[in-house]
């Protein structure tokens, strides 16, 4: 005996046959899958700018009187740790007095980051996706605010002398990142993270 197919039964049967998981839908599940797929190829770098001792890629010059009266202060610590080189430098100006030039070493560039004036830009750790907090959906794109776990991993962040010299604030173990998503070929993909 066959029962007549009601509209409600037909709708439920259609949903069951088509599957409830639609990869185009702007859902937390689909965004989480896209972020996790992105993270496999792009581990998140925890980067930031902070301010500490003055440094420049070409060096900072100190005249003999300043060094005699005040010393090199924090630069001596950085020199002892191998992060700066201190060398005598003769400016090419007629009658100019020799100076001490303090420059970041390759070790500084490799282990800490980029120094420019009193600002240091460093990628000092990692962050990983935890869960979706908020979604702002557009037609074929979305901004997904997510909770992330954060960890400072760079060796210098474990050195209290350097943390103090750079005025570095150790990040909270949990933070927030915004993932910029686009719908491509019926799947959500991460285009950028901020």
Descriptive report:
It is built from 6 helices and 8 strands; from the N terminus they run ααββααββαββαββ. The chain is of the alpha+beta class and 194 residues long. A hairpin with a 3-residue loop joins strand 5 and strand 6. The chain has 2 domains: 26-50 and 121-159 and 168-193, Nuclear Transport Factor 2, Chain: A; 52-118, no CATH class. 27% of the residues lie in helices and 42% in strands. The protein starts with 6 loop residues before the first helix and ends with a strand. The strands form 2 sheets. A 5-stranded antiparallel β-sheet has the order 1-5-6-7-8, with helices on one face.
Short description:
This protein is an alpha+beta fold and 194 residues long. Helices cover 27% and strands 42% of the residues.
What is the count of β-strands? Answer: 8
The string of secondary-structure elements, in order, is: HHEEHHEEHEEHEE
- General shape: elongated
The secondary-structure class comes to: alpha+beta
| Cα distance spanning the termini | 61 Å
Main β-sheet description: 5 strands, antiparallel
């Amino acid at each position: 005996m066959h029962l007549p197919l009601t509209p409600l039964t037909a709708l439920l049967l259609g949903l069951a046959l088509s599957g409830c998981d639609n990869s185009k839908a702007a859902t937390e599940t689909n965004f989480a899958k896209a972020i996790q797929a992105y993270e496999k190829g792009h581990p998140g770098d925890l980067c930031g700018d902070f301010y500490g001792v003055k440094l420049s890629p070409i060096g900072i010059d100190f005249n003999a009187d300043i060094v005699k009266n005040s010393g090199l202060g924090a630069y001596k610590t950085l020199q002892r740790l191998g992060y700066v080189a201190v060398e005598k430098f003769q400016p090419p100006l007629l009658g100019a007095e020799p100076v001490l030039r303090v420059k970041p070493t390759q070790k500084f560039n490799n282990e800490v980051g980029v120094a420019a004036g009193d600002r240091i830009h460093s990628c000092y750790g990692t962050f990983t996706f935890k869960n979706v907090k908020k979604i702002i959906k557009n037609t074929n794109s979305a901004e997904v605010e997510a909770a992330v776990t954060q960890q400072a991993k760079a060796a210098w962040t474990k050195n209290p002398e350097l943390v103090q010299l750079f005025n570095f604030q150790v990040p909270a173990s949990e933070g927030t990142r915004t993932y910029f998503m686009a719908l491509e070929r019926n799947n959500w993909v991460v285009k950028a993270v901020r």
